[in-house]
Amino acid sequence: MMRRISSDLASFKNLTFRPGLNILLADKSEGATDRQSRNGAGKTSFVELVHFLCGSKAPKDSIFRTPALIDSEFEIVMDVGDDEYSVTRTGKKPSIVILNGPAESLPIQPKYIERDGHYEISNENWKSILGACWFDLDAPPNPDEKNTPTFRSLFSYFARRQGSGAFQTPVQHSGQQQLWDQQVAISYLLGLDWRIASDLQGLRGKEKIVKELGRAARSGDLGTFVGRAADIRTRLAVAERKIERLSSQLQTFQVIPEYRDLQGEANDITAQINSLGEENFIDRGLIGDLEASLVEEREPDLSDLGRLYEEAGVVLPDMIRRRFDEVEVFHRTIIENRRSHLTNEIASASRRIQQRERTQSDLDVRRRQIMEILQSGGALEQYTAMREELGRAEAEVENLRQRLTAAETLESSKAELEIERARIAQALRDDVHEREDIVNEAIVTFEELSEALYETAGSLTIDATANGPSFEVKIEGQRSKGITNMQIFCFDLMLLELSSRRGRSPGFLIHDSHLFDGVDERQVAKALQLGADRAAEHGYQYIVTMNSDVLPEDGYRPDFDVREYILDTKVTDATDTGGLFGLRF
């Protein structure tokens, strides 16, 4: 229950509230200028003030951070749990809330400021306290839980704000409120299993991811990343084997400081062996030529010459014959010397070949020794290069693993999500069936409220659909703005009464004058009368802000005097100082 709202701003109109129906009336002056009527008398600002004192955000464009109000303290006295507290907050320090009251009763202990004689608590913790005391929420909330009921969302059903688009549909307190938040909040307030709607929202998030991945894969945006799981699995196996091989090589790798010198020596030895081989090739060719020349060398045959002379009939003298013999001896001597020289050259070439072959053998032994050393290790640069290659291979494996996970998720998630959606849908149907008494209670209460306003009663339908719990409100003629607003009126009263029975409400309901825009005067009168009766019957406050020119004079039952419920403090738009804050801003 709210008891009082005040401020240290001298021009502020302090407000005192009573149990039951409270009407904050704004006199609409016929002489108000356009400038004055644009700002109004502060009825909507009153709702904003209640939200401000109940933990709403205060961004830079908040009215409470305007130069005219930023230094002013605003205070509300109200019941929190079983105790009464005064709560003060300023636009200058919106993150701090000042409390006075039995702090030991609060679920989160505020800090006592001895020099000021009051308690202080952060605005975040203040919201947690209100959530615990009014709506039985955890204080503080569990940060690991998602899609849960929050104080600010639940409270907004009991103090709808025109600026948030709260008067569009009964189930939505803000134009920005998401479907899952509507389902969770209303299920929680009515006493249904809100966790089903929460699980469904979690499922929607997964379905959205899978849908986006599938769309991207089909369009080719992720074709190189996702691909087929089987293909990626094959590439992953090959890449992992490469890592095993590189790791094994690195484990046995030895860094050889003289690696470059040994490598150079091995190259020199190879060049020497090749050079010796070429020289041997030349000498073997030489031996072949020499051996061929040796075969061709023959002694001269002078008998043919003598026979020639004889056939010519020439008789050679003895002296000539003696010279032939000497020439034959001379030629035989030359041929023998030639053969001896060729034989020596062949022997010399053979010795050179043998010597080179021995040298080649010795060099080859040394080269093998060097290669064994080089094969057992390598240079530091080579080791570093192998480490870098291993790093690249490991990165590739990690990338492939992520791709494999994404591909498997994409391929298997759709079926799994369909199964999960079916499970949640069945759980929702079971919950609606098992809590049939709660569902019927809400339906009957809404019908009673709508029947008090219209000849034909409206209806509330609570259904378990594939997209979560559905709350549909119908009143005949619902296409008009006035009928829609009366749907909201009946829905809010039903929600307050049922949630109050379960200890999940602030104990009051605030309706801005915008709720009655376009509503027939007779229905407005019935609504005010119905709000007063239900508030008195069920023990809650119903606070309404209205313009004096739309407050019905007739349409009430004889024993109902609407003037008894008008607050003593009135506001007006006729003057600059007539509004709630007593100034224009």
UniProtKB/TrEMBL annotation:
It comes from the Bacteria. The keyword Iron does not apply. The keyword Lipid biosynthesis does not apply. Residues 287-411 form the ABC-three component systems C-terminal domain. Residues 449-585 form the DUF2326 domain. Residues 229-279, 383-430 form a coiled coil. Pfam families: CTD10 (PF20275), DUF2326 (PF10088). Keywords: Coiled coil. This is Uncharacterized protein YydD (DUF2326 family). It comes from Rhodovulum marinum.
